[in-house]
Amino acid sequence: MDNKTQRHLPLARWFSLSLLAVGVSLAGAAYAQENLRFAHVYETSEPFHKWAEWAADEIEERTEGRYTMQVHPASSLGKEEDINEGLELGTVDVIYTGTQFAGRSYGPMGIAGAAYMFRDFDHWQAYADSDLFQEISEGYQGATGNVPIALNYYGERHVTSNDPINVPEDMENLRIRVPNAPLYMMFPRAAGANPTPIAFDEVYLALQQGVVDAQENPLPTIRAKAFHEVQDYINLTGHITDSLITIVGGPRWNSLSEEDREIFREVFEEAARNNTEEIVQSEQDLVAWFEEQGTTVNEVDRTPFRDVVMPHHLGEAATWDEETYDRLQAIGQ
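== ABC transporter substrate-binding protein ==
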């Protein structure tokens, strides 16, 4: 509208047209901006949440505000199986999930979550950077439509209990809480224990009330969930070198431009590296911290535990073939 036209319009009419123009502009901006939901089951005190929030900020900045992302921690959008389903339904856009949960939809993905599958952290890192992981990720995407972006190191899982555990026989008939995914049961069953699936946010109370005798998680998680308050021993079995996968749901991924896909990939890969570095450092620091809290940290010989589990790697619980298993074992050799 030029100045001459503006002078000949009644003031009320000009004001109405101005408001309309502003409204159209704001509506266009709102339409262009999309808000994503990132769901996970971990506490706000854990690195996974911190780096998810960092990723949300980075994506908003790098896409120049085209995408914002709200992070929903601590099972606020459902249990782990719920948020996995949410990816395909489009009710969530991004999740962290264990490889064992992803393995329900595509068996080979679960191999990274099997007990004593990795020799040590370096073996895990070599797998995370390997062609094998990329191939398995592509297979998962083909089976589900969802897109694995990166592996985040979750830590070595250890057994907490009220009595010391030094050999597999000490786990005979032990009621041990495990996540509700079949591969988490491989280790306790091989050791003669009774694995009991319980939702993550219910574990503290289950231990406190004696519903189960034990649970297993990495040291940073044991601290974040305060399991040491209701268990006397942390037995360093290191039975699973565990991971979380950052996965973008198929409906969201398919709506992204190639440019934005690259931004999402770069951001989530960087967040995974930062998560991994923090968890490695935390594992190194926490033994002394737990001992200061009065919890007994029990060093164990892992060899007998490994020996009872290894025969199951290609047994009935395996959701991968022998070739995939051999390729993983050869990595880093």
